[in-house]
Write the structure tokens for this entry.
Amino acid sequence: MSPAPQPLIGTLASLAVLRQGRCVHQHALGPQAQRCLTLRSTGPATASTVSLVRGTWCIIAYQACGACLRGPVSSNVRPHVTIIGPSLQRQDECAAVLRSLPRWFGIEDSLLMYVRDSATLPTFAIEQDTRLLGFLSLQEHFPASWEVHCIAIAAEARNKGFGTRLLNHAESWLAARGVRFLQIKTVADSSPSPEYAESRKFYAARGYLPLEVFPTLWHPRNPALQLVKALNAA
Ligand SMILES: CC(C)(COP(=O)(O)OP(=O)(O)OC[C@H]1O[C@@H](n2cnc3c(N)ncnc32)[C@H](O)[C@@H]1OP(=O)(O)O)[C@@H](O)C(=O)NCCC(=O)NCCS
């Protein structure tokens, strides 16, 4: 026996967004999509009908919303991932990202510095729909030599390609401005930290080469490894 249909509160909330004249990506919809949505908004909402109708509505919304035509039109809603910046004023959300990574950002003063810096340094963020998944702040040392001051992807969003997208985006942005070298400092492998071994592996896979270790720059327990990458001229 199939289970009785249940109302889907989350889905109905999404429908309400659509009914207010905006697609799932929060773009305003044209009159054609508005009309379709209105026609389909009658009738009882059960689990099966709502999810079916939601799929249909979303496809219509995608098709009728010019801004969404880049996205998929033949399947149900997919998360919309975008990179924003380089000016970011989302300090609370940056703090939430860092707080989800206590093994990397467990020192409160440093965490608060990175949060503040996210609003003053050039900072890119990656968001899924409207949720901020991670951010990357850049610091200029010389016009041709910049540094990744902070990069973090929320714990539950790690290892899904978001950090790579964010770093690639920052590298392209810098290269387009004539920047030749991008450096990153992380904890050297003379520290036993398994967390920073993951960070080093991430950078190594993206072409960052070790340049020098500064044993006491941060703290003798956290020897700093300087990595560098030559950026392709744009
Ligand atoms: C380091 C960090 C920014 C990388 O971001 P990320 O989103 O986790 O990284 P990615 O998902 O792009 O890449 C990580 C691995 O996942 C793999 N991956 C990418 N897309 C994937 C997917 N869709 N599914 C599964 N794995 C995937 C990649 O191949 C990559 O492996 P590789 O490094 O061996 O090539 C992030 O993990 C983080 O915030 N770490 C904690 C904080 C930190 O280390 N900050 C830097 C301190 S110096």
